[in-house]
Amino acid sequence: MNILVCDDDREIVGAIEIYLKNEGYQVYKAYDGLEALDVVEREEIHLILMDIMMPKMDGMRATMRIREERNIPIIMLSAKSEDYDKITGLNVGADDYITKPFNPLELIARVKSQLRRYTSLGSMEKKTGIYRSGGLVVDDEQKSVTLDGEQVPVTPIEYGILKLLTANAGKVFSMEQIYEAVWKETAFNPENTVAVHVRRIREKIEINPKEPRYLKVVWGIGYKIEKIK
């Protein structure tokens, strides 16, 4: 697996490189957002560790550019720990967020978790079904989402949420259930993380995200995909 580490602090990049190489990963390095975009264009990258505050192009803008064409997992790194920064990072397309200074074991655990999810949503899984609700179709062989016959670009996390809810159309899942099923981790205050991904999904599949036809909230309980014939 190829991992891109992008941070303007070369010592941090070097330390992360050591941790990742000890786990058997191939590491590519970049020191600003523009360099990261160049590496992604030239190499087959399976996951990105992206700092937020960098010269030339920051991590937020670089993530937005990458998300225009690719759905590879992106974990944001930052010294900032405020919820606003986490939510902003998730809104622009990040899959996870870890604050500096970080525990190397936690970093590796998050990397492995994202890579497991990414590969399990790729061609390695056997077909388990096609799930439909009205014009919304989740094809688990192609790992694709279409709406009224048009392809919907989704990240691995977004796909996981849509697959879970569409395969169980009409059933309400709490935020904790969604987080544990999709992230495959114990949920600790998952509300912001799940809500941000749901909002991004709605922007992609709903004509009017404020009045959704498919992905609906059940207040005080969680979310569901409406069962539509």
Q: What's a quick, concise take on this entry?
A:
This protein has two domains: 2-120, Response regulator (Rossmann fold), CATH 3.40.50.2300; 130-225, Winged helix-like DNA-binding domain superfamily/Winged helix DNA-binding domain (Arc Repressor Mutant, subunit A, Orthogonal Bundle), CATH 1.10.10.10. The chain has helices at 10-22, 33-42, 59-67, 83-91, 104-120, 156-167, 175-182, 191-205; strands at residues 2-6, 26-30, 47-51, 74-78, 96-99, 130-133, 136-139, 144-147, 150-152, 215-218, 222-225. With 229 residues, it is of the alpha/beta class.
Could you characterize what this model shows?
This protein is α/β, with parallel strands linked by helices. It folds into two domains: 2-120, Response regulator (Rossmann fold); 130-225, Winged helix-like DNA-binding domain superfamily/Winged helix DNA-binding domain (Arc Repressor Mutant, subunit A). The protein has helices at residues 10-22, 33-42, 59-67, 83-91, 104-120, 156-167, 175-182, 191-205; strands spanning 2-6, 26-30, 47-51, 74-78, 96-99, 130-133, 136-139, 144-147, 150-152, 215-218, 222-225. The strands form three sheets. A five-stranded parallel sheet has the order 2-1-3-4-5, sandwiched between helices. A four-stranded antiparallel sheet has the order 6-7-8-9, covered by helices on one side. Helix 4 packs parallel to helix 8 (191-205). It is globular.
